[in-house]
Design goal:
single chain, 17 helices, 70% helix
């Protein structure tokens, strides 16, 4: 066990070399293995917390230690608690000729910068959560040029290790001599090299994601157009049968009148008058408003469709100038006028008036079931 002291001869960290060697090598191995998964975010913050606990270190003390030791170096990353702790552990391994332990600890530098940049490049502005799409991530890797480090080294973890080893060898003396200026350059070099690769990679990622969104939008438009054409043809056939050819569905009259508890004789009179060419345009509009938001018209045969009609006929306030309930009301009022039932209708209660209107809406719903 080695103790690290500050200028006041107070213990800042306790270095148990054997325990740290096993822990760091295991963690580095696991994280690099997991990075074969697209969009994997290394658990670097968990490793940091474990290292603080294992070395009995506190962030506040590490920060003070760094500022006292490296006075005159105004470089935020050098005075970072995690950086300070990694430097202390790496130096201890080097002093005891444990090159494997020192190199593995140094890999944590690179892994940390990679993870921070991954979070940054996948977190939208104004958001606190990251979004990374594995399929786009893989496409970006596949489309990188041969000169890109992620391509040269075959995988991202290989690239991170390559950067780490290169910078480690270049600044080995700075670590051993605890050269503040050299350590400053070491950290800056590591972060800059990784960021260059990450930036170019995510430029490709964003381009592919944009292509994906444009393709999806185009497919959606094509689907909407096809759906619109199919829906218009469906509505046109029903409108012609009902209004042009005067088709009357007796079963639909019975079911609709029983459902809303409307007078059977009046029901038949309503529908006989409705089955005229002059209602074609209004019926076509009503059907479109009823069905336009349905991707699958098979819903017409389900109870959900009846709930849908009830909801549309329950609307009391809307900013829309044309809506299903209004069209049905206009049709209903025209029928009432043609049958000379105004006086009778005006004397009805609000509930009975609603039943009279609703009958027409439900008749239409049961009429179109035969076409699905």
């Amino acid at each position: 066990m080695r103790y690290i002291y500050n200028l006041k001869n107070e213990v800042v960290s306790k270095i148990d070399r054997s325990a740290l060697h096993k822990f760091i090598l295991k963690k580095i191995s696991n994280e690099f293995s997991n990075m074969v998964e697209n969009c994997y975010y290394p658990k670097i913050s968990e490793i940091y917390k474990d290292l603080l606990y294992m070395t009995n270190s506190k962030e506040k003390e590490l920060l003070k230690y760094s500022k006292d030791k490296y006075k005159g170096i105004q470089f935020k990353l050098l005075h970072d608690p995690f950086t300070t702790l990694l430097i202390l552990i790496t130096q201890d391994f080097l002093q005891n000729k444990d090159l494997a332990g020192a190199e593995a600890t140094f890999h944590l530098f690179a892994l940390r910068y990679y993870t921070n940049l991954l979070h940054r490049y996948t977190t939208p502005k104004g958001s606190r959560s990251h979004i990374c799409q594995p399929d786009v991530f893989q496409s970006a890797l596949d489309r990188l040029s041969r000169n890109h480090m992620f391509s040269k080294q075959k995988t991202i973890p290989n690239s991170i290790m390559y950067y780490s080893r290169t910078v480690f060898k270049l600044h080995l003396k700075d670590l051993m001599n605890d050269d503040a200026a050299g350590l400053h350059k070491m950290i800056f070099a590591m972060r800059t090299r990784i960021n260059q690769s990450m930036r170019s990679f995510f430029n490709k990622y964003y381009d592919i994601n944009e292509e994906k969104q444009q393709t999806k939008s185009k497919e959606d438009v094509e689907y909407d157009q096809a759906h619109e054409t199919k829906l218009r043809n469906f509505i046109n056939k029903i409108t012609n049968d009902m209004c042009v050819y005067g088709k009357i569905d007796g079963d639909a009259i019975d079911v609709a009148s029983k459902l809303v508890k409307f007078n059977k004789k009046l029901s038949q009179e309503y529908i006989k008058d409705l089955s005229r060419p002059e209602f074609s345009e209004q019926i076509e509009t009503a059907l479109y408003l009823l069905l336009k938001d349905m991707n699958n018209i098979s819903v017409i045969k389900s109870t959900k469709f009846l709930d849908h009609i009830q909801k549309l006929m329950s609307i009391k306030v809307t900013k829309q100038q044309i809506y299903f309930k209004k069209v049905i009301t206009d049709i209903h009022n025209k029928i009432i006028s043609r049958l000379k039932l105004e006086k009778w209708y005006n004397n009805l209660s609000i509930q009975s008036k609603a039943i009279s209107r609703n009958f027409i809406a439900y008749y239409i719903s049961f009429f179109i079931r035969n076409y699905v």
